Amino acid sequence: CSYGGAEHKEKTEPEKIERFSLKIYSPGHFAVVEMFEDNADSLFFAAIGRYQLSADKYLEKYDASNVGYQIGTWREFDYSLDGDSLTITQSSDDINLREVWVRVNNN
Predict the structure, then answer these.
(1) What are the pLDDT digits (tens) for 74-88?
(2) Distance between CA 86 and CA 80 in Å, rounded?
(3) Residues 19, 10: contact at Cβ < 8 Å?
(4) Segment 38-57, tens digit of pLDDT
(5) What is the CA radius of gyration of the chain?
(6) pLDDT for residue 9 is more than 50
(7) Residue 27: in which H helix or E strand, if any?
(8) Mean pLDDT, the chain, as a whole number?
(9) Measured between alpha carbons, how far is 44 from 80 in angstroms, rounded to an integer?
(10) Cβ atoms within 10 Å of 29's Cβ, excluding its own
(11) Is the CB of residue 62 less than 8 Å from the CB of residue 72?
(12) Which of 88, 31, 90 is CA-nearest to residue 63?
């Protein structure tokens, strides 16, 4: 299934980063492509990898990415599913991340 939409990443300061994003899921794997709306010609992110879902955590591991230092590491998120929306969140001292992915209808 595919999810897409605007992704919102918010740093601890009120600076907001808006992106256009597309994420594709298959059993156990994902691919994601993101572009900054403010600078779509020069900045993007792409990754493929694996994911795991438990009762309360969503985990992603990048197998390939244009951001090399993230390859091979697992990232842990809290998540919620509400109908066709998947929300994943992560908080740390450096960043408060909230991604909302909405299922794209295949019809």
Answers:
(1) 989 999 999 989 899
(2) 6
(3) no
(4) 665 557 889 999 999 999 89
(5) 14
(6) no
(7) none
(8) 79
(9) 26
(10) 12
(11) yes
(12) 31
